[in-house]
Specification:
With about 210 residues, the chain is mainly α. It contains nine helices and no strands.
């Protein structure tokens, strides 16, 4: 094989395209994959053709494709990721599934009984000392329910704390708006804030992962 010229060694014509030369080289390498000497001859022949065509290009006799001038720099076109509407919907659904929980009926019943007791005590006992204690118990219950699900301490603390703050703030706003509207809620501001916060804690702790 080495007695032939480079084109004959690869089995192509001298006017063969770069793609034809590449295919011939690959075909021969597959054929002689267990013959190191033949593989070396194939590489030598291929390099000789490339160098010859580069020399002809410099002399202005032929136009060499970019792949032949820089065969090692063949760049594949970048793939642009296109997210379909179905994928977007699936991602949103997955996000909700990772946040929203579906507790069992037994879990809901137990948590409901605890918060119901706190609400009843808050209604019938408006002591300035009792309400803060009840709120503490409610916050602790909400944290315990969340922590039991995923054992994520700081995540449970963060969700419970944010729920508590949002509950108290919203309750005060709603209570003020009710008074301005002339509604009589028959509850003090502290009682209303406690009841509203208990309900929000119950909702978030039960249905949030």
């Amino acid at each position: 094989m080495s007695e032939l010229n480079p084109y004959e060694q690869l089995g192509v014509k001298e006017d063969a395209s770069f793609e034809e030369i590449q295919k011939a080289k690959k075909k021969l390498k597959d054929k002689y994959e267990n013959n190191p000497q033949q593989l070396e001859n194939i590489e030598v022949a291929y390099d000789a053709i490339i160098m010859q065509r580069l020399r002809l290009r410099q002399e202005g006799k032929i136009k060499v494709p970019e792949q032949i001038r820089f065969p090692e720099k063949t760049v594949e076109p970048k793939k642009v990721a296109v997210i379909s509407n179905a994928q977007k919907t699936a991602n949103i659904s997955l996000w909700f599934n990772n946040i929203i929980d579906q507790p069992s009926g037994k879990e809901i019943l137990i948590n409901s009984l605890i918060f119901l007791v706190l609400i009843v005590i808050s209604i019938f006992n408006n002591s300035s000392e009792t309400l803060p204690l009840l709120l503490t118990v409610g916050v602790g219950t909400g944290f315990a329910v969340l922590y039991r699900k995923q054992k994520a301490f700081w995540r449970s603390v963060g969700i419970t704390f944010i729920t508590f703050i949002v509950g108290v703030c919203l309750a005060n706003v709603i209570f003020s708006l009710s008074l301005n509207a002339g509604l009589n809620l028959s509850l003090s501001a502290e009682q209303f804030a406690s009841l509203f916060t208990f309900c929000l804690l119950w909702l978030v702790s039960n249905f949030t992962r």
